[in-house]
Structure formats: C-alpha cells, structure tokens
Specification:
Elements lengths: L18 E6 L5 E8 L4 E6 L20 E6 L18 H15 L4 E6 L1 H12 L4 E7 L6 H8 L8 H8 L10 H9 L4 H17 L7 H5 L4 H16 L9 H4 L9 E6 L7 H10 L4 E5 L9 H13 L4
Parallel strand pairs: 3-4, 3-5, 5-6, 6-7, 7-8
Antiparallel strand pairs: 1-2, 2-4
Length: 322
C-alpha cells in the first residue's frame, strides 16, 4: 500500500496591520490587539496557543486579506500585553471577558473565531458563553484541560513517547517531588528566585516544544532561548494548568457543548498529536456531530504541519462569506 503524505497549501501573503493598540481590561492588565486585511471585511479573531504563547505575524496569513478583517489579540500577560507574565486577574473567564470587550470596542456584531491548542479551549469557552456573537468556529488540536489531559502532558503519558526529552524536562525537580510535577514546577515558577524560575521555564518549554511536531522542529526549540517569551509561556501555562483552567467541573467544555452545536464549526486534529491527544477531539466530535471533523493522518500537534495547515486554510476559506 502506498503511503500518502500530506502536502501543504501555501499560506496567504504576509501583511502588515492597519491598526493596533492597547485595550485596558482591568486595573492591572492591558492587552495588545491589531487589525489587518479588509477594513470592512468578514471579522475573524485569532486566539493564540499557550496560554502565554502570544501572537505572531504568521497568524494573519491563514485568512484571505481581501475578504477578512483579521483581528489578533495577545492574551493577558502574553506577547505585547502588559504587565508581562502577570498571573493576577488572569483566568479563562477574564480572557473571555477581554474578547467581548475587544469586540465591543471594534464595533463588531458577530465574528468567526479561530483557535488552536489552548486557543481551541478559549474559543469553545467564549462560544459557550456568547454563542450569539459567533458566526463560525475553526478549532485545531483540541484541549479541554481535563485532569487526564494535564497528567498525560506533564506527568505520565507523553513521557512514554519521548522518554529522552522527559529526562531533561524533570531535571530541575528533585526526585522526591516528581510524583506531582505540575505542582513542583508551579512552586518554582512562582517562587521568586529568578535563576530557578528561568531554569524551570526553559525545561517546561523545551519539553512542550520538543513534542509538538511529528518531527522535532529546531525553530520551536529556538524559542527556549528567548528569555522573556519563555517566562511568559511557562509561568502562565503552568498557572492555568495547576488551576484546571479555572473551570467549575473537569469536563465543563464538553458538558456544555449543546450551547454551540448550531454554530458552523470545523475541527482539525493531528492523528499523532502528543500534546493534545486525539481522544479529546474524538470526544468533542461525538458530542458535536454537526461539526466538520478532520483527522490529519500524518500530523502531530503543530499548526505548521502540512496536512493541518492545509485543512485550516480550507476551513478559513469555507467561512469567508458566512
């Protein structure tokens, strides 16, 4: 039997924002936002991965700039938002409220919502809270922060596939504390010792970047050397993980999916996603059969893998004129 390898569709051309600014969302936080593409076009908001990852210029290029009004937002403490890596007043529900504040500021009635990995979590949480504001959902690498997902990623599960990388991940943690790696990392990332914080932030981030693609991507590993970025990413992500996403119950997003089943939705999931295993996407698919569901047979977690990239571009094109 011939092996079929996915080919990547080309992204849309690089473009520059026509507008950007800082939105004050609390006494502590200001979030960065930008707009590009067609000023009067179909509005779409891109919700970045992490939490704590921030946006990048590449995120604009999923969308046809002749058709879409493209909005990017750095979530609290991430990217260009200030203060950097701030954990106070930083919960899922704060971010959901920020998305609404940005929509109101920009005068948008309804928009397409795009989110991958943690972005899929936030997109679902936002849509379940404000379904009347969502035209369509584009979701990739489904993550719902159930306890089993968190233990798989950060304690025992993914380690079976990458035991070599896992050894490096746990090095900053004494053996006596390795029965609870999430808690051990959180204590150090928030303990105030800058040297220890950076050591743990690098270990935490290198682990996730190593396992994020079917084939390890050196560009992902390069992120570990960006001190400011790595502290934002590791501290904020660990903060959300140790608090279970700030959900009222473990399976809240799956349990509340009936609130969004009327919304046109496309789900894209890599078959060999080690960060967010396909089991979660499958559960969402079973609970939300109306959504278009694509399994990419030769992809891991990254949105940059050829088959995943192509499916996401197709989904964005599908909802151009919704």
């Amino acid at each position: 039997m011939a092996v079929v390898t996915s080919k990547a569709r080309a992204m849309y051309p690089d473009i520059e924002p026509y507008d950007n600014g800082m939105l004050k969302v609390s006494e502590i936080h200001q979030v960065y936002y930008e707009q590009s593409g067609n000023k009067t076009g179909n509005p779409v908001i891109f919700l970045h991965w992490g939490p704590g990852g921030g946006t990048s210029p590449r995120d604009r290029t999923y969308f046809d700039p002749k058709v879409y009004r493209i909005i990017l937002m750095d979530q609290r403490g991430a990217g260009k938002s200030t203060p950097a890596a701030e954990l106070r007043e930083n919960t899922t529900w704060d971010l959901v409220a920020d998305i609404e504040k940005l929509r109101e500021k920009l005068g948008i009635k309804r928009w397409v919502v795009f989110g991958g990995s943690w972005g899929s979590t936030l997109a679902i949480a936002y849509a379940e809270t404000h379904p009347e504001r969502v035209k369509a959902l584009i979701l990739r690498g489904i993550f719902t922060l159930r306890r089993r997902e968190l233990l798989w990623l950060n304690q025992d599960g993914a380690s079976s596939f990458f035991p070599d990388a896992f050894e490096d991940y746990v090095k900053p943690i004494p053996e006596a504390e390795r029965c609870d790696l999430i808690g051990a990392f959180y204590r150090r990332l928030t303990g105030g010792d800058k040297k220890v914080e950076l050591e743990c932030a690098k270990a935490w981030t290198k682990w996730e970047m190593t396992i994020s693609r079917l084939y390890v991507d050196p560009q992902y590993l390069d992120l570990v050397e960006d001190v400011n970025w790595v502290l934002q990413f590791a501290k904020i992500e660990c903060h959300y993980i140790v608090h279970g996403g700030f959900f009222e119950k473990d399976d809240q997003l799956l349990a509340d999916v009936d609130k969004i089943r009327h919304i046109p939705t496309t789900i894209v999931q890599g078959r060999y996603d080690i960060v967010c295993p396909m089991d979660t996407a499958w559960k969402l698919h079973r609970a939300f059969p109306e959504a278009e569901f694509h399994i990419v047979p030769d992809a891991g977690h990254s949105e940059k893998e050829p088959g995943t990239q192509s499916r996401l571009l197709d989904a964005c094109d599908k909802y151009k004129n919704i």
